[in-house]
Amino acid sequence: MHNDLAADAIAVAPIVDPAHARPHATRDEYRSAVEQARGAAAAYYAGEQNLLDDADYDALYARIVASEREHPQWRTGDSPTAVVGTVGGDVEHSSPMLSIGNVFNSEGLRDWAAKLDRTLDRPVTRYTVEPKIDGLAIAARYTEGRLTQLATRGNGYTGEDVTSQARLIAGLPQRLSAPVTIEVRGEVYMTDTDFAKGCDLRLAHGEPVFANPRSAAAGSLRAQRVYDVPLSFMAYAAHGVPEEHAHSHSAVIDHLGALGVATTAQSSAGLAVCTDIDEVTAAVAALGARRGDLGFGVDGVVVKADLTADQEQAGYSTRAPRWGIAYKFPADTRTTTLLRIDVQVGRTGVITPVAVLEPVQVGGVVVTSATLHNFTDLQRRDVRAGDTVYIRRAGDVIPEITGAVPDARPADAEPFSPPEHCPRCGGDIDRSNLRWRCARGRACGEKATLLYYTSRDAMDIEGLGDKILDALLAAGHITDAADLYALDVPTLAAMDRLGTVSATNLVNSIAATKARPLSRVLTGLGIRMTGRTLSRRIARHFGTMDAILAATPAEWEQVDGIGSERAAVILAELAEVAPLIAKLAAHGVNMTEPTGPAATADTGAPADSALPLRRPDGTPMTVVVTGSVPGLTRNQGNEAVEELGGKSSGSVSSKTDFVVVGDGAGSKATKAADLGLPILDADKFARLLAAHRAGDLTTTTEILTTLSR
């Protein structure tokens, strides 16, 4: 956000306003700028890697506008000021899909509002403020409630038919809730979570990762692949709306939501209705402050005159509506210097290049390193130490380099040379996949693997620290996690700095972990493409380790969050660690989940239908825990949600069933209140968990009925 709209705004490079931009000195310079802008726009709309980041493109566009204002005779037909989008297609739009004008600060926003008042010869009656989704504009045609055609914006007058890809898009139903004939317009985009999934899918199929969510969405909407990349949709307009719902923009959006279409109003960003420009600037600032927590990319805010009568009276220019404007945020992409490229080896032996950066602030966070994904992708991007590079970060996505600035490369910059041998153990490297791996696999990182197994989020073995593990490994007492359970007091007491008392405590601490639930064991094993949350989900789905090991690929795909590619990786990983699993079981480590299907039959634990956070149809409620819950760590709070039958989520959205709010809650609690979501006090949540464990159905029911909006 700009400082004139938000006191806590981050410091960013200024965006160039066309009103203050410097025109080009010669016609040749102008023509060169037009060609550069058209090339960058074509790549952007085609879903390719960005040739310019947003701020650089805006500055280039501003100078083109200034040049055409100063020298109107220079203006060409292919200028980006005259052409919307990119090439057209075979689908003719029912009405032009125009662009929208931009402003870059509160002064520009107020100037636009004053000009609109003059056009109407009276004040605007009401405004709406909604997110400007960083996606691909499309038009969806419904005939008698059935989706019949989907087209990209193209050049604004004709677009490309992408109807076959509609099945990928969440929020754009195949059938509406009423048999109406209507055209819905909006943005196809990729959420931060789906972007990470999409990159994993690309890597699994031997393809480079996506450049960014926007290009990922645009490219995936056009591409016919052997795998499906998840996409989302958000509506911002419609044609053919009945008169009773067409008197205002906000009423149109409400009508679309009632038909089952995802809209900006239903999103975590919301749609604000404002009575004057002061309320508008406040709403813009509020949305900008939450930009990094929305779960999807926004590059600005769209402000519109809400009433249809005001829109009709204001009309259109040749390129954009006069009744709407986009307030552009500073770009999520920044530039900084790549200091060096390090090579890291993970606990499973995966070898990854990592960029070490000159610190730069991106999305409100100071970034000092960024992922380079894999060595093939690194060579494709050809980034080198000393380069000025583009850094992107959206929400909680790991910062990444999307490219280098070619003209800024130092003359002595050398191409990066990938390692010939494993940097950790000096052994051979398996290069058969895009993600290189030490040929020794987990054995290369035995200490890292053991530290992860013993960590608090996994088996939580108290008293077994870094130095003791080093000594145990050096003495040959252990080679894997199962060997921990064979340790005895005499062996440990004979080690340096460990007497009989400490050795006894450690043996008891290790033995106590045998009773940990299966989900903790799975987490401790460190199966690739899983983690704490997915391990809990897997354990609750299958119930026992025997069921997990016997499951077919088709059965794995029934687990929420696991597709065919991830299932293949997990199955391969389980085959690799099967001997370790057998050793752990032989030492008496528990291999069942207390609330899993098998445990229900064997131990009398509650069936899914009796879990308090299950809906009547058996599906889990989505719950977000923010702040501290009495007696629980943050991870234990998330585990408790799943123990109660719910689905734990790290982000608040309109799809969240309720939010648990405790001491120290921050922006998630605020967002829940803004969305009007039910709130459960953390103390009551702790009581709910205790009542469930005690089988007190009356108390659990009473607590859930107290959920307040």
Automatic annotation (TrEMBL):
Record has DNA damage as a keyword: yes
Coiled coil ranges: none
Active site: K132
Pfam families in UniProt: BRCT, DNA_ligase_aden, HHH_2, HHH_5, OB_DNA_ligase
Record keywords: DNA damage, DNA repair, DNA replication, Ligase, Magnesium, Manganese, Metal-binding, NAD, Zinc
Annotated family: Belongs to the NAD-dependent DNA ligase family. LigA subfamily.
Name of this protein: DNA ligase
Lineage: Bacteria, Bacillati, Actinomycetota, Actinomycetes, Micromonosporales
